[in-house]
Design a protein that fits this description.
With 490 residues, this protein is α/β, with parallel strands linked by helices. The chain has one domain (9-488). Helices cover 37% and strands 14% of the residues. It contains 15 helices and 17 strands. The chain has helices at 9-24, 29-38, 41-54, 81-84, 89-93, 101-104, 143-147, 165-174, 184-192, 252-273, 276-299, 306-312, 322-334, 353-377, 448-458, and strands spanning 69-75, 128-131, 136-139, 152-159, 202-206, 232-233, 339-344, 384-389, 393-394, 411-412, 416-421, 429-431, 433-434, 441-443, 446-447, 468-470, 473-475.
């Protein structure tokens, strides 16, 4: 196992050995990429695969992995667990009564509801039913998710310290509330490398026409890790990856020639300076060149059967929608992309929650369930982890006026629900429990770092041992916390 200080002597020797290997065999990065694009796919692909594997910081996984990749369906804004998964009939019985001080226990509120004269309890207006053989509670807002309840592991006792969106999202994505740390996908790319040398190991997609909390590229940034591990955003439209295509009048062969000359210049610079970032830059150039062929192929869903498109829903035919991105996530998983991050905005329902959550559920429910079914029928769910959830939950009291058919809910970091499927997570279980008011964790709390540690465990990584030395300290995704929740994994 490598200790992974990419600025130290060990990484310098690694870079030198890799360069010596390519020069010794007279088959540099540019030659391999060109051979692949021109049809010499057998030899080029095999060498590129070896290159990708050797690029991992870990010599081998710490444990036998149960999963190879992650698809994270991040619901930005904080979906209300009390209207989707956490059934609390007491709230309906006490609807309109003030939140008891004995339940709140002086816990802090956001500035948006701290000055309310009262905090009236708000029962959900949506019906809940037990679903499948597992009997998981799922509301009528999510009929398609209800249909796959036996494939899901519901974690109902998640909690976080962050009470506002930006630090809470940053915490889930990077393990720290302050910006600047590497994203989870970057850590996996760094530790495990890539299974496909022609696509980035970390890809991000955002539902188009979304509104709500802003999403910053630092959420999928590489932080202090080498830049080759940053997330690459795929967009809908003519240019899925910005600045990837050749300018007018530039052919593939001329671009190849320019890159070969550029690589030689960088080689000289590396010999003078010994800076690993130089080789990382060349690797990104080469990846961009290979992506000119691989990205159009993966983005073209015209070969998908009508039955598959119907399963994901009508929006699957509309590039850039959540449904279309879920379908692309499956295609990327098939091609060995290590970490696929989908963002869907619009779950921040401080007011008008009933109409807002109906709209968001309709946009996401069918496609989320279809992704699980699609992966399962192709044999991919066993080694793919799929996560669905937001950065925190919502309060059991109404923010603003409470009426018979309308209410809002403020941010609530003390307890909320996410579901996980595949990758060795136990299906058909609900883990953890909140109190009868849905305000505090009553049993089996799961911190954000605990979830991150468990995900890494399933991918064969000891979360305490995948580290990177930066500014004199060894950092890791779970910072100084986190423990594996063995009860939810096999």
């Amino acid at each position: 196992m490598a200790t992974n200080d990419m600025s130290g002597c060990g990484s310098f020797n690694f870079e030198m050995n890799r360069r010596d290997f390519f020069s010794r065999f007279g088959y540099g990065l540019g030659g391999m990429a060109l051979a692949h694009l021109l049809g010499d796919s057998v030899s080029a692909s095999s060498v590129l695969s070896d290159m990708a594997a050797s690029g991992a910081a870990l010599d081998a996984p710490h444990f036998e992995p149960k999963a190879k990749r992650v698809i994270y369906l991040f619901q930005s804004g904080g979906p209300s667990q009390l209207d989707l998964f956490d059934y609390k009939p007491l709230l309906n019985e006490m609807n309109g009564q003030d939140l008891p001080d004995s339940v709140r226990m002086g816990q802090r509120l956001t500035g948006m509801s701290a000055n309310q004269a009262s905090l009236p309890l708000a029962g959900s207006i949506f019906d809940f039913k037990r679903r499948g053989k597992s009997g998981a509670w799922v509301s009528d807002l999510l009929p398609y998710t209800a249909g796959i309840a036996d494939d899901l592991c519901f974690v109902k006792s998640l909690y976080t310290e962050a009470i506002n969106h930006d630090p809470a999202m940053t915490f889930f994505q990077t393990g720290a509330q302050q910006p600047g740390r590497p994203a989870m996908g970057s850590w996996l790319s760094y530790g495990l490398g890539s299974e496909n040398a022609n696509l980035p190991s970390f890809i991000v997609m955002i539902s188009k026409n979304g509104s709500g909390q802003p999403l910053y590229s630092r959420l999928w940034g590489n932080g202090f890790l080498p830049s080759s591990h940053q997330g690459v955003q795929f967009r809908a439209g003519k240019d899925p990856v910005l600045y990837l295509g050749n300018p007018p009048g530039i052919s593939m062969s001329s671009r190849r020639e320019v890159m070969d000359h550029l690589a030689r210049l960088h080689e000289q610079q590396y010999q003078d300076l010994g800076d690993p970032a130089i080789n990382s830059r060349v690797a990104q150039y080469e990846m961009a060149f290979r992506m000119q062929t691989s990205v159009p192929e993966v983005m073209d869903t015209s070969d998908e059967p009508e039955a598959i498109l119907d399963m994901y829903g009508e929006d699957a035919r509309n590039p850039g929608t959540y449904a279309a991105n879920c379908l692309l996530a499956r295609r990327l998983a098939e091609r060995g992309v290590r970490f696929i991050q989908l963002y869907h905005q619009g779950w921040d329902h401080h007011g008008g929650l009933p109409n807002g959550i109906r709209s968001q559920s309709k946009k996401t429910d069918q496609a989320s369930a279809a992704l699980i079914k699609d992966l399962k029928q192709r044999g991919l769910l066993d080694d793919t982890i799929v996560i669905w959830g937001g950065e925190f939950g919502r309060t059991n009291y109404s923010q603003g006026a409470l009426t018979e058919d309308n209410y809002g809910r403020d941010h609530h970091p003390r307890c909320f629900t996410q579901w996980i499927a595949g990758g060795g997570f136990k299906p058909g279980i609900s883990y953890g429990e909140t109190d009868e008011f849905g305000y505090n964790v009553a049993r089996n709390p799961v911190h954000v770092h605990d979830l991150q540690a468990t995900l890494l465990q399933q991918l064969g990584i000891d979360h305490k041992r995948l580290t990177f030395k930066h500014q004199g300290r060894r950092y890791r995704l779970t910072d100084v916390g986190g423990h594996v929740v063995n009860e939810i994994i096999s």
